[in-house]
Amino acid sequence: MTPRRHSRRVLFSVPLLAVPAALAGIPAGSAIGAEGDFYSFLYVIGREATAQGIRTSTVDLALRYAQYLPHVIELDRHQPEQVLTFMQYLQKTVSPQRIENARRELFDNWGLLEAVHRRYGVDPRFIVALWGMESDFGKITGNYLVVASLATLGFDGRRGPYFRSELISALRIIDQGNIGPGNMNGSWAGAMGQCQFMPSTFLRYAIDYDGDGRRDIWYDRADVLASIANFLAHLGWRDGESWGRRVLLPPGFDTRWSGLELRRPTGEWSRMGVRSVDARPLAVREIEASLVTPDGAGGPALLVYDNFRTIMRWNKSTYFAGAVGYLADAMVGPERSRNG
Fold this sequence. Notes:
Number of helices: 15
Oligomer: single chain
Radius of gyration: 23 Å
Shape: globular
Helix content: 40-55%
C-alpha cells in the first residue's frame, strides 16, 4: 500500500529521557486523549526501552523523530474496503507489467538468487514473487517514518500493546546500527523496507547476507532477497515443491470438500473428478493437497500444497497466497512450474 502523505521529520530539541521523573508513573495505555500527552507516552516508552538494554543515546535520538500523526489514526480506523473477486485481484496484482518485471528481476539477479537458494532452500521464483507482491521489487516501500507511525499507533490504544512492542523493536534495530531513525521508512502501519517486515519480524529473520555489519532491507538487495528466503524457510518452506494450481471441478461437486483443513493425495482428487484447467487428469505424482475456493462455490478452484500454507503464514490471505503462486508460475511458464 502506498501511503498518501509523508510524515514530516520534526526533531524535538530536548532529550526525551530528560522529562521530569514525575511522568514516569504514567501507564502507556492511559495516553489516549489530548495530543500533549503523546510526549508523556514517549517518555514512558523511552524508560521501557532503556530498561530492556537499548542505549539511552539511541532512545533520545530515535524518539526525536516521533510525532503524533492523526492521518495514521484515520487510516487505521477507516481502512478502505475494496471488494474484489479473486480473478479481479489477480488482474490487479499479477498484471502483465508485473510479470515482465518479475522475469527481468529473476534473470538479472539469478546468480545471487541461486546462492540464496543453496543456503536457504527456497526456489528463486518464489523469492522474486514475494518481493514483487510486497514492494513491487523495491519501488514501493512506504514513505512514513516507522518510529513516528508506530509511536502514533502505540499511543492511540486500539492495538496499543502490539504497536508499543513493535516500537521498542524498531528502537532495538536502530540501536544495533542497521539503519538510522531518519532513514527507517515504511508503511503507515510500520511494515518496513523492500520485504515489508514488521520490526519484530526483522529482529528474528532479517539477514546480513553480504556481511557488511548491517541487516539492510531498505537498500541492500542481497540482504532483501536473503531475508525473504530466510523467513520463508523458517515458516516451513518445502524445497522442490510448488504451491498448487488452478483446477476444474466436475459439475455438482460438493464444495464441503474444500478447505485447508482437508488434505487428500492428488490421486484421490483426480478420482473425484478434479481436473487440470486444460481438462486433463492431474499429474500422476502423489502429493497431499487441499482444495481452496477463494470466492466460494462457483468461483475459481485451487488445489494447493503445503507451500501455499507457508505463504499464508507470511500473509493470512488466500488471495495473496494465490497471487504469489500465479506470479511465480508466470515467470517460468506452466510446464516448468507444474508440480503435483
